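ok so I'm stuck.
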Amino acid sequence: MSFKAIFLDLDGTSLNDNNALSPALQEILTILKSKGIQIIFSTGRSFAGSLPFAKAIGGTDYIINYNGARVFDFKREIILHEATLPKPVLKQVFHFSNEYRYPPIFYHNNIIYTKDGIPHHYTCPGERFEVLCPNHDWVNETLTKALFVLPEEELADHLSIAYDFFDGASVSTSSSTYLEVMPLGINKAVGAQYVLEALKIDPKQCIAFGDQLNDKELLSLVAHPYIMENATEPLKAQFPDRIVAKNIEDGVAKQLDRLFELNYFR
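replied:
not stuck anymore, here's the structure
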């Protein structure tokens, strides 16, 4: 089997619970990159929030951020693709927030705007949090993604509500507590298609790993999808015969070791 590219989600997939690539995965990805395999991290994170992991394996040619809303080409040092939330959707975000009493969080470039400016996740160098000032005209700002942090037991119900609530946007989840709102039609598969077109690689030659609903379209695009044992149940139900070990058990590294016959874990 000739594999040419590997698309990797970060949180809950490639990263362990210490927000790091395991030594085994870091070494395996470095080895595969040296063999000419394209390694593409595909994440809901910002560019700065994902860059350290690309650097950990000696750099990558492309990186997909904000669930496919932004694709960066390191070879040409350009943004290959970018989409932002239209004004009507930004209005809907605030209406949703007012109705369900969860403050919105906005992402653009490497800035994350929250109600109090306090980080809600691990922050990487170059990524910063700022206050979502209530008196500012946010509807006329350029923003890439909106996010709501909900209690885990409420996420499924609010996701169902959000599907009907948001007109002109794509809605998904990226963790057991994150409800995400992206520009319409945007998902990780869209970002991947920009990369594959640039590389002239067929999805049949690609592998992808993921654990949340925001990975679904990308996993459906490639010929060789793999889902983590710790993945959300709806995703596991869609790919029941493609489940690998948990992220904290080095599931990605072990599966790549088998696929490429590296004998790293012998």
